[in-house]
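#lab-general

N.A. 3:47 PM
ok so I finally got the sequence cleaned up, no stray characters, all 723 residues accounted for. can someone with queue access submit it? mine expired

B.Y. 3:52 PM
send it over

N.A. 3:53 PM
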Amino acid sequence: MNKWEAKFGFFWYNDDELFKFTQKDFDEKAKRIADAGINIVMTFSCTHFRWTFYRYWDRILRCIEMTVKACHKYGIKVVEHHSSHLTFNPQCQDDWDYMERILHARGSSIASWEGLAETVNDDICINGKPISSFRQIDGRTGKHAWSNYRGYCMCFNNPDYRQAYFQYLERVYQTGVDGIMTDDVQYFAQGHACACEYCRRLFKEETGYDLPEPGKAWEAFWRDYDNPVYIAWERFRRKSTERFQRAVNRHFEDLGLHLLRPNYVSGALNSNPTAYCFDMGSDLWDWIFQENCFSTLIRVSWPYWYVESLHRYALARKHGVPSMSLFYPDREDSYYFVWALAQSWGQMLTVTPEGYDLSSIEKKYRTFEKKYDRIYSDQQKIAPVALLFSLNNAYYVKAQKHTEEIFGFGQGMYLSNIPVDMVFDDDPLEKLEEYAMIVLPNLVMLDELQITRLRKYAEQGGMLFITGLPGIKAQDGTTRPLEKVLSLLGITSVPKKVTAEPSNFTVKYDGEESGTILGQQSEYIFEDAQNKGFLFAEKGVAGIWEKVGKGRIYWIPSGLSLDILRPLNADRFQRTEVRVQTPPNNADNIKKTMRLLMSPVKKALPVAFEKIAEDRVATVYLSSDKKKLIVHVVNTENVYPKTPVMIGHSDLVPSFVSDYRPKESEDTVLRLREDFQISKAVLISPENKEEIGIPVSVQEGSYVLSIPMESFYSYAAIVCDLE
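B.Y. 4:20 PM
back already:
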């Protein structure tokens, strides 16, 4: 299938489907989903922790088979999705209550499964091996590792587990599924797994190192990021999960099957103690998407999820596959909001409330997408700035600041309507040269080839914007002198370390003061560098620029303190709604900071907004055929509360309810970059029955568009035909 034509949905099979449905019921459910415009479903089930339901596999497989038969009848492909190894193993009343809440949210209960309560902790035998022998081992204790889900977990290097799981997968494939998502391929025990006999032996074979024994030796070893043995073990854990996912592909390919492999992860940018291999195995995935987690409050969490979308979009583009967002809306206002976000992020969308589907609401928006498929399919991002995201710095640097700055830069530019993209450690020079500026946010760990490549980018006319002390660690965790790194980059100024203290930074590009950044920390100062300074602390020059070849390098060795907007959780697995207080809204601060710091790319912006309401966020793309310029505008007025209030999942998204009208507004005026020549512009929105023509004029050599305030209220795309 054409992957960009896929319209994803979820097919839940819970108690009704497992115990009551006839084939006719499955057919009727599949028809409803197809009528909503969905042509591919991922299954989800109360039996997600599949090994907990080992005794019921025959029933589950019959249900999957009937699901496949029904979906295929209506042209829907089916991707079976379950946890590859997690189990419930309740040890106390809290654990039992947790298990019951999860099952209840997914349309089931412990009592639904005859004998489950009595057998859930049994040490069943598979192929003559007790299931307990499959488990991950906690390096601290030498005992079975405990997961985040009140149960045990299995080791991907354990050959007996692999044999048993692949045998189960063969049975799944026999039901006729079109794809497989083997979920939760992760190590647990808070980052202390796995230290089983198989992992110890493989680690020794591959690295020459021995893992320490439990107790004090392990405590001294764990999280010692200056120890090459620890760095090697962290890399080994991720290699192990990657190797397992590749083995899944080889297994079904050896069976003569060509299965679809969508995959998602919630947080790819943070340090991940579970060793999830999402990036490392990304060439396996047919759709690369993010889970914007079930319990996070959409109204508050969307700026955070936007930065994750930068990663998925860039990773998907790298492999020529679509990027997607998974959200959990449960009403039309929340659905419309996340639909608008996903389109404006250049992503496909899939949604599900936990336990059921939203096909009745989706139809309107899926129909709109289909009508404007040439706009929404495979959008090509235009951005003058890219953030360099580094797995090495996210995963293998102690107390890393890289991720925090990624989110700060990303949110600040997004909310300021500065288009931003993402690049990766291994991207070639040709990719870097697509951008006017590359931001290096606290990249402590760099290899010399990468440093050389970045210097070449600057020499050929690019701008590097560096924070922190770049490249002072090699990939094995050993240190590298800063002076050597500066020599490789072509930087001649060496900062002086001073006593760290709070400071405001004054921004002066080309000697002209433009504003002040509050709440920073001054730890490094440049002496005798007034003529090179662009950032000034109370003690002296905090940031310098240097000309390198045809380009420039901007450097702030103290780094930046960026007060980001974080996701907010309200547990949705409780029987009554959980309400929580929203954090302070710091959007104005990070917007001001980014507008000041990104002044050097102002002329490279594809679209400049001469007038736009403060809470409207805009993103810019080309259509897949490069014939249309697309500007998405999302109205976020009062979505993220301006002051702390108590909210829950039931609260409406204010600017996306059907009767919303802005209190005050004015026409939006945007100016296109001089190299964009257009023949016409129209506005499209699900709120309007027809396209609306947009007045266009030429002023001072640029096309200027004026968008009437009443032409849309919540979301619109301005589509310009390029000449």
